[in-house]
Amino acid sequence: MRYENALVIGAPASVVWDLTTDIARWPELTPTMRSVEPLDPLPLKTGVRARIKQPLQPASVWTVTEFEPGRRFAWETRRGELTMTGTHLVEEVDGGCRNTLGLELSGKGEGRFAFLFGAAVRWGIAKENQGFKQEAERLAAE
């Protein structure tokens, strides 16, 4: 099961990428993050881990599994036999960039998780993307 939200942001891709990789700042941008604590030295790269605390969820450790500077990164966490992979993709388009956030579920319990929490996941990803948009456009206007 994959959830995705894409928004065109009226800011340079570099501004959105900087916000995307400044993971400790995410709780300022969205109510879906209580804390993001890097567990390894930054900047982000493959293998870097962070402990994320989100509302109504236990803290979980996410590990960067793919990293393409300036464009894309993916990271994943496990909950029992369920693997969650979060993706962040920034692409230049006319008038700014497109920011695409995704969450993919795989493994045992995927269908049950999607049934129980699918609407909340869709809402959360959209809210996160809206936070990136608001801050990137504010920064670009300065």
Label this structure with key terms.
single chain; 142 residues; alpha+beta; Alpha-D-Glucose-1,6-Bisphosphate, Chain A, domain 4; seven-stranded antiparallel β-sheet; 3 helices; globular
Write up what this structure looks like.
The chain has a single domain, classed as Alpha-D-Glucose-1,6-Bisphosphate, Chain A, domain 4, CATH 3.30.530. Strand 3 and strand 4 form a beta hairpin. It contains three helices and seven strands; from the N terminus they run βααββββββα. A seven-stranded antiparallel β-sheet has the order 1-7-6-5-4-3-2, with helices on one face. The chain has 142 residues and is an alpha+beta fold.
Content of β-strand: 35-45%
CATH architecture: 2-Layer Sandwich
Mean pLDDT: 96
- Describe the main β-sheet briefly: 7 strands, antiparallel
Which spans have pLDDT < 50 for at least 5 consecutive residues?
Answer: none
Shape: globular
Judged by helices, strands and strand pairing, the structural class is: alpha+beta
Count of helix runs: 3
Order of helices and strands: EHHEEEEEEH
How many structural domains? 1
CATH domain fold name: Alpha-D-Glucose-1,6-Bisphosphate, Chain A, domain 4
Helicity range: 25-40%
